[in-house]
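Record type: ASSEMBLY
Status: queued
Input:
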Amino acid sequence: MKAPAFSYVRAESVEHALELLSRHGNAAKILSGGQSLLPALNLRLAAPAVLIDIGRLDELRGIKLRDDVVTIGALTRHADLLTSEEISASLPLLRKAAAHVAHPAIRNRGTIGGNLAHADPASEFPACMLALDARMVIRGEGGERRVNARDFFRGIYETALEPHELLAAIEVPRPQPGSRTYFHEFVRRSGDYAMTGLAALAHVDGAQLGDLRLSYFAISDRPHLARATSHLVGVEITAERIAEAQAELDAELDPPDDQQASAAMRRHFARLLLFRCVADVLGRPELAMEAVR
Amino acid sequence: MTTTRIALTVNGESVSADVPARLNLADFVRDQLGLTGTHVGCEHGVCGACTLRVDGEIVRSCLTLVVQADGCAVETIEGLSDSGEIADLQAAFRERNALQCGYCTPGMLMTAQDLLRKCANPERTEIREHLSGNYCRCTGYHAIVDAVERTAKARQRRS
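Status: finished
Output:
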């Protein structure tokens, strides 16, 4: 279908965008890359009166590393995350995830800020930001505030953003040297919505896990940080420990049944991803074999 | 309805127009410029039939408003075809019978050329991955992958 009619304003600065947002409130939508907004408009799932195009605001672009914090401008595109040397060196989890976000033509326009503000529960980046304990830098006419990823995602397409606010950047603490990351998602075809996926950050301490953050997506109304990892941190990892953690994980999840996958299938994928991730970050492939048995 | 004045180049030619904000780039090149090689399939970014290049990068023209392309250099399948840039790829598609029903072909060609510009010697899995945003309804795509692989090898021999 075709998008409904709307007015269009190209913001000249962040201040201009914020002024337009407070003038139009809920009637306005921010347009950055448009790769989630335009499908919603074309399918007539959204009908804003005004689009505020922030796509040319260079002040919202770019990746900077300072004092072990990587600041990613909201307009940084998925394609930029894939090719950025700073991201490869400091935040390889984001590079791994970006390769799974839709397709090349969409990654050339889709932006990290748009993706996070859209808060699709099946999306890769919200889960990555939760795994990495990132902070969202939010601008409003009254100034700037920061919200942790765990408080930012509030539900399906729901975030802590107020109607008059703009997500300006994401601050990601650079993981300590020696940390490892894992990313995998189950999809029917490459680039489709995930049926279940996992973004993980681990600190490996000798043969043990010093810390493990397992952030699941497409399994709840928002990314889910597994509590079951308490069974795996600071202990010798055996097939029994993994089985305990899997049982605990199963108990804490309440996955939806929908057209992508049944709840039982999602639980199965979540258990699989847990042991695959642990085996991978510890470099112990035999753990995965034992867990299958 | 209010319109916005835009100026851009399409296949190297300057174009200016007054356009409504909701008009997407696919409908603009097809309906206002008569460049109907860009196909419109799903209109929500899934099928890739509307793929064209903006400032040298492939995009979904159904997910790009024409006002967003103001000041940009747009290239459509007609541009790539007329300039000869993809003559070998088109010949390989024809020889290998890779058109299938033909509806996805312009988008497949745009996307395949994008891969070949970035990667001179792609593996078949890389070809499939890059074309994964252009799956349509015929299924299969083996002949398409063959044609892209053959073109890559031929270009390597020539260079």
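Annotation: Residues 142-158 of chain B form the longest helix (17 residues).
Annotation: The domain at 3-80 of chain B is CATH 3.10.20.30 (Ubiquitin-like (UB roll)).
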